[in-house]
Each structure stands twice: as structure tokens, then as C-alpha cells.
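Morning run. Coffee first, then this:
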Amino acid sequence: MPEVSIAIIQARMASSRLPGKVLLDIGGQPMLIRVIERVKRARTVDRTVVATTTDPSDDPVERLCQERGYPCYRGSAQDVLDRYYQAARSHEAEIVVRITADCPVIDPGLIDETVKALFEPSPVSSQEPAIAYDFAANRLPPPWGRTYPIGLDVEACTFAGLETAWVEARQPHQREHVMPFFYENPQRFRICLLNHHTDLSAYRWTVDSAEDLELLRQIYSRFGGRDDFSWLEVLALFEREPELLQINAVVRHKDYREIDER
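And here it is:
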């Protein structure tokens, strides 16, 4: 795959339910660092970029990236689609991988599977695989569905597809949540949905509340604070300790059409 693949991690301090969550500690490191380091292990990703906002409240995000040597792009707070597009263009991305900073058990293996799903093998073994899809994801909203745990979400698209969305998307939720223009226009794009062989959608491994944060801290504590465990190891942990499910069982998952009214 000769295309330049850029993983863009959206991160901001002004979370509505858990302010400042991206820099909260999980096992001795800010959550954002946990996400970045896990994403960087994906073999299909050439560069990992943090995309935050120009709001002064996000100065600490940029400062942390500078301290750790991570590329950081600053753009619109509400028009996240524009933030992604501008970050992708500035890094000359050909493939764009969308990750959110509230998923500290994001899995590099699943990132690789999602990016590879954009391509089809060449009929001539000596040639590189050709792009077969405009957009690939391991979860999509209804009527499609999801089979992977919440918090392992990966979306990948061609830069050309992202540019089309950037030009044509008009609805507020399409601008704020980056990829809905793909979901809502399946006739316009070649879309690939990855499914797991069993439905694991009841698991919630993302951080959007105090309960979620406690669960992820518990997960990291079980692995001694290291961050190189796989999502299958987390699944095995929950099978051994099913009571972990109760920590954030009351948290409602947001609909992708919800927008920040602040």
C-alpha cells in the first residue's frame, strides 16, 4: 500500500460530560498519550497527528504534544470535519484514519484491519493492492450496526472521499462528527463495514463519564500500567471478571447526530 496513511486523533479539553478528560491520568499517563502510543503501533499508519482546536483551553493539548514530540494541528472547535480535512491536507494524507482521544484501549491490529479493508489484492502479485472502497469502519450507525466494543472505533477513508464530504456536507452534525456524510450517502461512496464473528457491542471501553474513567483505570491496573495489551486481552479480562461491566453500565452512549449546543 504505497498511499500515505495518516491517523488523526481528535482531542479537546472541553468535553461536555467530563471536562479535561483527554489529559486525565490512566495508569500513570495522560489518556491522550495512551491513545497516541497505541495508534503509533499500527503498521498501516505512516504518521500520527493530534488535531485539537484553536481555543485557548486547548493550549495544554498542544503543549503536551510539543513536549512529547507529537505532530499537532489546531483548527476549528465545532467544524471538526474542516479540522480533519486541513490536518490531512497539511500532512499530504492519501488515506485518513479517524481516531478519538477518549479510546485508550484502541487497538493497532484493528486499525490495520480497517485500513487494509480499503484495498483489494492485486490480480498480479507483483503489483500493489488497489483501492476498492472510499470508506471503511468497524462500526456504523443504524441501519448497519456494530459488533465490536464501544471504544475500539476506527474509521478510514481516502483523502478524495474526505474532500468530497468537506465540500458538500452542510448539516451541523455532519461537520461536528466528521464522517456522517459517508454514513448518510451510501449511494455516493463505496463503504466497507467490518464485523466481528460475535456481537460484542454491549462492552463499553471509551471514556465519556466518571464511571467510564474508573473502568479504564481498572483495566490498566490489571495490566500493570503497560499499554501494549490487545483488545482480545481486555475481552479475556472481562470474561474472567464480568463484574467490571457494572462500573459504567448506566452510561448512555451518544447518538452520532447529537451536537454540542454550547
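The mean pLDDT is 93. Good start to the day.
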